[in-house]
Design goal:
Elements lengths: L16 E4 L3 H12 L4 E4 L4 H6 L5 E2 L1 H9 L4 H6 L1 E3 L1 E6 L2 E6 H4 L5 E3 L2 H15 L2 E3 L3 E6 L7 E6 L2 E6 L2 E4 L6 H4 L8 E15 L9 E4 L5 E7 L2 E9 L9 H11 L2 H6 L5 E14 L3 E2 L2 E3 L5 E2 L7 H22 L5 H26 L6 H16 L2 H12 L8
Parallel strand pairs: 1-2, 1-12, 2-8, 5-14, 12-19
Antiparallel strand pairs: 3-7, 4-7, 5-6, 9-10, 10-11, 13-16, 13-17, 14-15, 15-16, 17-20, 18-19
Helix pairs in contact: 1-6, 1-10, 10-11
The chain binds 8-demethyl-8-dimethylamino-flavin-adenine-dinucleotide and P-hydroxybenzoic acid.
P-hydroxybenzoic acid binds next to loops.
Amino acid sequence: MTEIEETNHKAPTKTQVAIIGAGPSGLLLGQLLTKAGIDNVILERQTGEYVLGRIRAGVLEQGTVNLIREAGAGARMDKEGLIHTHTDFSFQGEHYQLDIEKYSGGKHVVVYGQTEVTRDLMEEREKAGAITIYEADSVKLHDIESDQPYVTYQHNDELHRLDCDYIAGCDGFHGPSRKAIPSNKIEEYEKVYPFGWLGLMSDTPPVNDELVYCAHERGFALCSMRSPTRSRYYIQVPDTDKIENWTEERFWKELKRRIPPEMAERLVTGPALEMSIAPLRSYVCETMQYGKLFLLGDSAHIVPPTGAKGLNLAASDVDTAYRLFVKIYKEGRTDLIPRYQEICLARVWKAVRFSWWMTMLLHRFESGGRFDFRVQQAEFDYFIHSDAGKTTIAENYVGLPFEALE
Ligand code: RFL
Ligand code: PHB
C-alpha cells in the first residue's frame, strides 16, 4: 500500500463539505478549505496511483499558479515549472512566434504537468491529515435539495454514509454528481467535433523551446513538453480511429509531415511512455449549483484541449467555490450562493469560445473542402499579423481574470 492510500482506514460519518473526486478540482478545493479550517472529506473511486497515472494537461495560467501557491502546494511547481513567455504556431509548415507576454500586458504561462500538480496536492493533503477515501465505490448523492444532504458509498464491502452541509461535485465528466440534478432542472449545451487527439509522451528533448500549434492540410499537430527531457506530442485523428491502428513509428512519421520542415529534421524520436486517443468536445452544464450541490471542473464543463483551458477552468471554479465557502462558514453569507454559478459561467463561456475558436482555426475539417481551408488560412494570416489579433490570442491564452464574489 502506498503512503497516499493509507488514509483509507478512517471512515468519517460527518463533514462540512463532502468532495467527490480526487482530480485537480477536488484536491485543490480540499487543500484550500483545510487551510481555512473548513472540514472536508474526499471520496475517490480510483486508487491514488491510478489518478496519478492519467496523463493530461500541461499548461497553467497565472491564476491557477497563484491558487496552487495559496493552497500551499506550489514549492515544486515554482522550482521545476517552465515559464513560457511565447507560444508558436505554424500554418502549412511556416513557423510563427507569438510573444504572449508582450501582447497580454506582461503575463506568461507555466508548463507543469497535471500529474505533478495532483501529486503535490496529494502530498500536502496527506501532511495536513485531511481524509481521502480512495476506492470508494457506488458513490451516491442524497437529499441535495434539503438541509441535510448526505453521500453513501461502498468501501471494503461495507456501505458507508457521510453527512455533510454541502457537496462539491469534482468527479469529472462521467461522475455521479451532475447526474444527481433532476433532468427537468438541468440546462446543458454540447458540441462534438469529428476528430480526436492522438497523444504520445516520450523521454526525448522537446523539438522546440516553445509549444508549437501546427495547422496543416493533413491535420492539426501540437508539440508540447513536460520538462527539458520529456516531450508531449499530439496529432489530430478521425473520431472513428482506434489506438490499435497506430504504431509509434507511424505516429512519428505523421507528426513530421505536419510540423515545420526544419523542426521535423531536428525532431528526436524515442519509445512512447504513453499513447492514447482523446475525443474532442465542448460541453457546458449551466446548472452549476443545485440545492446543496456545487459542480466544479470537468463535471460541469468540457473544452477541447486546443486552448489549454480545461484544468485552468477547474481552478477558476475552485477559486470561486473556496471563497464562497469561506464567506458562508466565517460570515454566514448564504445569500452569496447564487453568485457561484453567475461568476463561473461568465468565465466558462469565454474559455469555451476561445477553445472552440482555436479548434476551428487550426484543425482540418473533412467536410469543409478547399474553400474552408483557404478561409482558415486567411483568418490565421490576419490574426498573426495584426496587433489586435495577437492581443486577442495572447489575452485569452494566458487566461482571463478571476472575478471577485462581491
Ligand atoms: P478529473 O481530472 O476528471 O477528475 C475527476 C475525478 O473524479 C473521480 N471520479 C469519481 N470519484 C468517485 N466516484 C465516482 N463515481 C467518480 N467518477 C469519477 C475520477 O476518478 C477523477 O479522479 O476532473 P477535474 O478535477 O475537474 O479536472 C479537470 C482536468 O482534468 C481537465 O480539465 C484537463 O485535464 C483538461 N486538459 C487540459 N487542461 C488544461 O488546462 N491545459 C491543458 O494543457 C490540457 N490538456 C486536457 C489536456 C485533457 C486531455 N484529455 C485527456 C481529455 C490534454 C488532454 C489530452
Ligand atoms: C499538453 O502539454 O498536454 C498540452 C499543451 C497545450 C494544449 C493541450 C495539451 O493546448
